[in-house]
């Protein structure tokens, strides 16, 4: 870990002192802390090489500043597994419903991440669907980019609206058995390009119900992946076409996404194209003011025949999950999940327990 990485968490903490700074006194600032912790049990066999019991502790620091048309947004994650600058963006409001950003961003083609970011308290479940998983946490699709992001909205008849987001920047790199996103602190010159887009329809801007189209293209360079070296793989041109829906009705909520992923594998000997289809449906039912019952089904087709997915042998391709969340005190929650998961190498059971909160 470089000296810069040690100093950056301190810098984010010191941002809270800017509330008293004369230089920033004209703008509005907000500093939020999203801590979460809990044990995890994996029913793995001994030859998996993974621990049966794990304990995680995360602290996600989110800072925002608004002064007229100018915006600053920063997010830093400190956990038992990693410390990483997740987002650092500078924005300018170009119109009443439009804003442009530059920096390290979340790709707009991953709806779950745009909604919840890294704050565990914000999402009902503990785990994320495989197509929404962050790159360095077992994800198989790009979720971060470093470059430009433009967001805009257009009013329709009544209270309906269309929202659009478009990004262009640096793509992750395939190394070891993970995707590694572009790091602003340690830039990788070998990163390829990535383009992502989300088009969303809101039936009522005063509500959160929406449905949309997701598109993405990434040039994923290969660097140090053993499976890729055996395949003679140099890069992957990845195309993603998907759709999502997030709908609430009384005490029910449904969030679902389906993505078709096409991978053009650039090999030294011969090129090849493979594809897979992955999706999920999560249903949530609030049966009491502080209690929510939820469940999720995930499935991936052509998982066993995809050379691209073979680069990530431990990725969960299918899952059936049930969970219960209890919100208590002020902005704190206890959540439990029980699931049956499948990967290319094994089927296993998983139990997760989590405490999450947001301060202040």
Give your account of this protein's structure:
The protein has 360 residues and is mostly beta strands. The protein has one domain (40-51, 99-104, 123-357): Porin (Beta Barrel), CATH 2.40.160. 7% of the residues lie in helices and 58% in strands. The chain has a 16-stranded antiparallel barrel with strand order 1-2-3-4-5-6-7-10-11-12-13-14-15-16-17-18. Strand 12 (233-249) and strand 13 form a beta hairpin.
Structural class assignment: mainly beta
CATH class: Mainly Beta
Structure annotation, total helices: 3
Largest sheet: 16 strands, antiparallel, barrel
The percent range for strand residues is over 45%
- Give start-end ranges of low-pLDDT stretches: 1-10, 16-22
CATH architecture assignment name: Beta Barrel
Count all strands and give the number: 18
Quaternary state of the chains: single chain
Order of helices and strands: HEEEEEHEEEEEEHEEEEEEE
Strand order, biggest sheet? Answer: 1-2-3-4-5-6-7-10-11-12-13-14-15-16-17-18
Q: Briefly note the CATH topology name.
A: Porin
Tell me the distance between the termini. 30 Å
Brief write-up:
This protein is mainly beta. The chain contains three helices and 18 strands.
């Amino acid at each position: 870990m470089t000296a810069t990485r040690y100093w950056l968490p301190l810098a984010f903490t010191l941002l809270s002192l800017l509330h008293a700074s004369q230089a920033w006194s004209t703008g509005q600032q907000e500093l939020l802390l999203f801590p979460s912790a809990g044990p995890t049990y994996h029913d793995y066999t001994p030859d998996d090489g993974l621990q049966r019991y794990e304990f995680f502790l995360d602290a996600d620091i989110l800072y925002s500043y608004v002064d007229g048309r100018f915006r600053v947004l920063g997010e830093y994650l400190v956990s038992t597994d990693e410390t990483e600058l997740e987002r650092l963006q500078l924005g300018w409001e170009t119109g009443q419903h439009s804003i442009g950003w530059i920096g390290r961003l979340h790709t707009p083609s991953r709806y779950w991440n745009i909604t919840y970011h890294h704050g565990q308290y914000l999402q009902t479940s503990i785990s994320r669907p495989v197509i929404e998983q962050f790159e360095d946490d077992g994800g198989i699709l790009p979720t971060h980019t470093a470059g430009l992001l433009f967001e805009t909205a257009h009013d329709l008849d009544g209270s309906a609206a269309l929202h659009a987001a478009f990004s262009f920047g640096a793509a992750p790199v395939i190394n070891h058995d993970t995707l590694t996103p572009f790091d602003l602190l340690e830039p990788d010159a070998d990163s390829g390009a990535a383009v992502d887009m989300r088009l969303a329809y809101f039936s009522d801007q005063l509500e959160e119900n929406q449905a949309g189209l997701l598109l993405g293209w990434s040039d994923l360079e290969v660097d140090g992946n053993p499976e890729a070296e055996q395949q003679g793989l140099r890069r992957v041109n990845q195309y993603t076409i998907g759709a999502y829906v997030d709908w609430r009705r009384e005490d029910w909520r449904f969030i679902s996404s389906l993505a078709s992923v096409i991978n053009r594998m650039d090999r030294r000997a011969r090129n090849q194209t493979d594809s897979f289809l992955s999706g999920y449906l999560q249903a949530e039912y609030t049966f009491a003011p502080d209690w929510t019952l939820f469940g999720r089904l995930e499935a991936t087709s052509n998982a066993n025949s995809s050379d691209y997915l073979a680069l990530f042998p431990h990725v969960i391709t299918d899952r059936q999950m049930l969970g219960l969340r209890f919100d208590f005190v002020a902005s704190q929650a206890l959540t439990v999940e029980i699931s049956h998961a499948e990967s290319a190498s094994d089927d296993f059971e998983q139990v997760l327990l989590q405490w999450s909160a947001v301060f202040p």
